[in-house]
Each structure stands twice: as structure tokens, then as C-alpha cells.
UniProtKB/TrEMBL annotation:
PROSITE patterns: EF_HAND_1 (PS00018), EF_HAND_2 (PS50222). It holds the Pfam family EF-hand_8. Gene3D superfamilies: EF-hand (1.10.238.10). Residues 4-39, 97-132 form the EF-hand domain. This is EF-hand domain-containing protein.
Length: 186
């Protein structure tokens, strides 16, 4: 696990840390759910909004809460990195643990349900689910769309998520899934 991997994890924390306190809590996930529901045209309090909130609660409970090793309901950078190293850092079995999380975001992103993630669907999801700036979201899409066809299959997104979360290879497919990774750690 190299510096590039730690830089990627820094970016993930930064993108998920909605209230900017440097750590992840369930509140960050609620805020993301509210933002995503609004971005996808679902009114606050609508049944779709509740479904998205439930999905985010499940993501927290199943994926992130177990990483909180001291059980104080606050997920720190060190806890996140340690958990990734222990459970996800392997493109095979590690990714199988991660796959349901990616699948949940695919279901959200694929607004028209055609099994393809268009550039527009990708950019909208990355902007609102992960607060990625629009230009970085376009850059990320371009890095994944090898043929330039303007569409990604679910399989490509899974490959990208595996390359991002389960390897520390800066040249892996998916290294640019969340836009540019800026070196922030020695
Ligand atoms: Ca936070
Ligand atoms: Ca903790
Ligand atoms: Ca679609």
C-alpha cells in the first residue's frame, strides 16, 4: 500500500466528509442522501427520498461502521485506511466485499435503468453523490471511456472501482475514477 493509495483515501474522505470536520459519521451520509435525492428530482420527504436515505444508512451500517475499529461512531482517516488494507485491498476477494456498495451506486446512477451509465448520468452522480467538481467528473469519465463512445457498462464501473479501491497501481484502470489524485502525504 503506497503513497498513491493513501492519497486516494485522502480524496475519498474529503469527498464524503460533507460537514468538513475531517472524519466520517452517519451525518455525512445523511447529508449526501439528501443532496442526491434533490439532484435526482425527488422532493424532501418523498418515498424516493426515503429509499435513498435508507440506501445510504445501509451503506454506512454495512460498509463504513464496521471500519470504525474503536466504535466511537466516528471514522477517522487511519481507521479507513486500516480497514481497506485488511478487507478490501485485493482485486479478487477484496472487491467481492466491495461490489455491493458499487452496485448500490450503479442503481442510483443509472437513472433510466438501461444498464448503461451515460456521461450525463456519471457526471450527475459524481457531482452530487461525491461532490466532485463538474470538470473533474468529466475528466474521470474520459479516463474510463476507453473507446470514447460516451457510455460505460456496469462491468467497466466495477473494474474501475476495483482498480481504485483494491490496488495501489497509479496506472490501473479506474485510478482516475474520482478525478485527479493530488499528493497530500509524504
Ligand atoms: Ca464529517
Ligand atoms: Ca472511530
Ligand atoms: Ca443509463
Amino acid at each position: 500500500m503506497n503513497a498513491f493509495y493513501l492519497d486516494k483515501m485522502s480524496k475519498i474522505i474529503q469527498l464524503l466528509d460533507d460537514n468538513g470536520d475531517g472524519v466520517l459519521t452517519l451525518d455525512d451520509f445523511y447529508a449526501a442522501a439528501d443532496r442526491v435525492a434533490l439532484a435526482f428530482g425527488h422532493a424532501h420527504g418523498s418515498s424516493e427520498h426515503h429509499l435513498i436515505r435508507d440506501a445510504y444508512t445501509t451503506i454506512w451500517d454495512k460498509t463504513y461502521a464496521p471500519m470504525d475499529s474503536d466504535r466511537d461512531n466516528v471514522l477517522t482517516f487511519d481507521e479507513l485506511v486500516e480497514a481497506h488494507q485488511d478487507t478490501l485491498y485485493d482485486p479478487g476477494i477484496g472487491y467481492e466485499r466491495f461490489r455491493p456498495l458499487a452496485q448500490a451506486f450503479l442503481a442510483l446512477a443509472d437513472g433510466d435503468g438501461d444498464g448503461i451509465i451515460s456521461r450525463e448520468e456519471f457526471v450527475r452522480t459524481m457531482r452530487h453523490a461525491f461532490r466532485l467538481p463538474e470538470d473533474e467528473a468529466h475528466e474521470a469519465f474520459g479516463s474510463l471511456d476507453e473507446t470514447g463512445g460516451g457510455r460505460l457498462t456496469y462491468d467497466q464501473i466495477h473494474r474501475a472501482a476495483s482498480g481504485f479501491f483494491c490496488t495501489d497501481d497509479p496506472d490501473a484502470y479506474g485510478a482516475g475514477l474520482f478525478g485527479p489524485v493530488v499528493p497530500v502525504r509524504a
